[in-house]
Amino acid sequence: MRTVEDTYALTPLQQGMLFHGLRDRRAGAYLVQMVCTFVKDLNVPAFRLAWERVVARHPILRTGFRWEGLDEPLQEVHSRVELPLEAQDWRGLSAQEQGDRLDAYLRDDRTRGFDLGQAPLFRLALFRAGEDGHRFVWTFHHILLDGRSVLDVLKEVSVFYDAFCQGRDLQRPLPRPYRDHVEWVQRQDLRRAETHWRGLLRGFASPTPLTVAPPQECREGRGGQELRLSASATAALQGLAREHGITLNTALQGAWALLLSRYSGEEDVVFGAVRACRHSTVEGAESMIGLLLNTLPVRVRVPPDAVLLPWLKDLRAQHLAVRAFENTPLVKVQEWSDAPAGVPLFESVVMFENYEWDALLRTLEGGLAYREVRFIENPSYPITVAGHAAPEFLVKINYDRGRFDEPTVARMLGHLRTLLEGIASAPHRPLVELPMLTEEERRQLLVAWNRTEAETPRERCVHRLFEAWSGRTPGALAVAGGGRRLTYGELNARANRLAHRLRALGVGPEVPVGICLEPSPEAVVGMLGALKAGGAYVPLDPEDAHERLTFMLRDTRVPALLTRRGLLPKLPESAARVICLDEEPGMPGAANPDAQPGHLAYIIYTSGSTGAPKGVEVLHAGLANLVAWHQRAYGVTPADRASQVARLAFDASVWEIWPYLTAGASVHIPDRETRMSPGRVLAWLAAERITLSFLPTPLAEAAMEEAWPEDLALRALFTGGDRLRRVPRKAYPFRIVNHYGPTEYTVVTTCAQVSPEDREPPIGRPIANTRVYVLDAHRRPVPVGAPGELYIGGDGLSRGYLHRPELTAERFVPDPFGASPDARLYRTGDRVRYRPDGNLEFLGRMDQQVKIRGFRVELGEIEAALVRHAGVREAAVVAREGVSGQRLVAYMVAGGVPPGPDELRAFLQEKLPAYMAPQAFVFLDSLPLTANGKVDRRGLPAPDDSGVPASAPRSPVEKALAAVWADVLGVERVGIHDNFFELGGHSLLATRLISRLCAEFWVELPLQTLFDAPTVAELALAITRRRAGETDQEGLERLLAELEGLSDEEAEQYVARETGVDA
């Protein structure tokens, strides 16, 4: 028997809550649990009667929702409902057991959720805890009530309870029904609202990311933390608000806007704000019981030079201006904005209440004494911030534990505290000067994690350190390669002869010497000879383009160029004297170098953004620091055998040679063919008994996929030069250490050991005598987990760029944290973030971030996800311009049978947001590399149409689905790989679409299906599988019914006859 007495529409916020509730019925979105204690003996029958009376008085408490088969959902008011009151006696349990029972009940209660089609959408539970005490839980769906209504319901229950306990009945006037507010909202003309919201949001296209490091372990559910300002800080904020016509809500919104700006690096941010709509609707709404709220965007520009107080007043003015439009449906505001279809306007929400529940409920009239009141909520946004104007300002953060972990949220609360206290204490300062980090954080970021002081040798020039070993062990092997071997004594003698010759040509301190050779013992002779002459060497790659070689020779103006006769035809004309090291021995005798730590040791050219190479001037002091650190960190001894794999023009070659030749160890050089093959490299490492080896990152990643020889002598493998995207699949009997460092900081800046347990390989902590800072655009330290630009200072800092004073001044900047006034930092242009353990994580280049559908995308994050697929060995992702804007293209090298595009999409769906999924997948035999072993992104081919799936429907189900989609979305044509939400689908349309599909396909589809399968192709497959599953279930039920009552022998014969299977 139907008991529906009234039906009417939903408010916009109710529609959104219904959508989230249907999307995932298990998630418990918008489920609220109020937990409290009644300290007096409770009259349970009177308590039940009081609740029944209040439910009878207010239609919203008897309301359910209907959506199936409807274009627009409706709320249905039932004339009566059964009061869902559960009672248990826990008096026999200890306090600990009662607490455990309550936690278990709350957890199970949340999991149970609500069927939004079945009224009532609340339930009550009473647990008798003692002779005169009860624990009480009221669970309800937020779609029914806002905070003001919750308070009024509790007031009424208390008043009626008091009357019933005294044997009295009570008559109270009824408030205006909630239906009147809903109808008023439905009648609103939105044309003025559209003008307002379009103006406010013009130019804003993507949600402000609250960018933090993801949790170390993925957890489900919501978490909550809170902070309470001191009484003095609260009083200062309240005094500021009274004096200047703002509110505590304004202060909280301002603090959150500043936090978002600092975390994201954006000066234009948007977040949501919950607005109470009781003053902008029908008369009598102040006492109405229902949901009179709306969540709408707040846009805040955060110019650094703006003064805090006028800026807060502007924010308050925006709040007041929105009052006339605060009932506007959010979905309409979304449509009127410049955000792409399917992209939310905000990911965080701020709300404010002028009371604290526990204190307020203690003062209620009536016979119920509410104590220890707390609310457990489950909003749908990733993070919500709630302010409470208690005697001491209270701020609570509710967060998605899949996005944020406890330490991250605790830091956020600390930052909010610092910002709020700063607002209260100095409202007349510019925003840029308002502190956010706590003093403890600043010490950690600037000092504690930069305690890297270490001793370096007094003789800070590597050629002098080498000479000490050549005198001590002249017969020991120094360098070998290409069938040639040089002992320390032989290498020293040859370098001395060359140094004499170079000095005769005018080489001395600050004079560069060109070396155009492949990795070889002769190249080591050339480098050492140049240093012994007091000069600096300039490695030139014989395989470089003629134009590049010409530029570098002209730029350096070298008086001498060292090479071999076979390379002479490749060399461009220059004024340099050419010396062939395979022919000219030079003059015998000891060198008399006079180079000092502050002189140049070498110049290495890196590619410039404008195309012109830039020569980095590296000093002896930086080289000596690198050598001393490496020898200490890896325990280098004369027994070590090191590899030299990198080309000479790659600064890693510096690191492969000098730490060993200054420690009595030997350096071994493979031939070119070996260097290019992971399998050959591994075999060579084993055959040569190499103990310490560097492999450029792409080569190291490829080598990790190979079968390693059993007889390796290796004790450490070093990677570097490019982002390490994968971790070893298993533990090896040697260390794998990832290194990071720009050429401008003498090869290595940070390092970290990598293990199979790492989710993402870090770039680690700074090496000896090195400082690293993660700073924002105003050179302020950013919080742990937030991205920023990496700045580097310390002993390894190079002088700058040869003949490029403007570029040097731009990239080498004053150190605001340095102990000396002339201290400098190098701006790397690399985007990184700190992990909580002090390790740095590399995110990409500052200038390589791309925007896809309004979202900022880190290409490296997609690459790291792809290589976690067993069938992908290497990956590079680029953004290419297409007809409809930028699209992501993934280039991969297969690790076996290449996975198909659908398999890769499904794999990435579990690891990345939908907007980060590439639109095309291209498999190559190998990724193109630069001469230094980095992925050459410019060399990646343009994808052909085979990388993009066809879009025409292929089956009757897909054709029917595409037609329904086009009708619901109001578009002319839908492809099978088009995403419903990217085409403009939103909560109301999603509900409408599912309702249509359930009716047309005769299948029950939860709304979550559309999120799991948001394209026509994916949804067609889901519907087909679901229909098959339902058919199988029907057949099973029919079979069981037929078998019922048969003997075992008859049942076996029946099964064999029906299925063709011998039972």
Kindly describe this structure.
One of its GO terms (cellular component) is cytosol. The protein is an alpha/beta fold. Among the domains are: 4-174, 2-Layer Sandwich (Chloramphenicol Acetyltransferase), CATH 3.30.559; 204-344 and 382-436, 2-Layer Sandwich (Chloramphenicol Acetyltransferase); 454-619, Rossmann fold (3-Layer(aba) Sandwich); 849-949, 2-Layer Sandwich (GMP Synthetase, Chain A, domain 3), CATH 3.30.300.30; 956-1043, ACP-like (Non-ribosomal Peptide Synthetase Peptidyl Carrier Protein, Chain A, Orthogonal Bundle). The strands form 10 sheets. The protein has a 6-stranded mixed beta sheet with strand order 8-14-13-11-9-10, with helices on one face. Strands 5-6-7-2-12 form a 5-stranded mixed beta sheet. A hairpin with a 7-residue loop joins strand 3 and strand 4 (74-78). Helix 2 (44-57) packs across helix 4 (147-165).
Task: Write a brief caption for the model.
GO terms for molecular function: catalytic activity; phosphopantetheine binding. Keywords: Phosphopantetheine, Phosphoprotein. With 1063 residues, this protein is an alpha/beta fold.
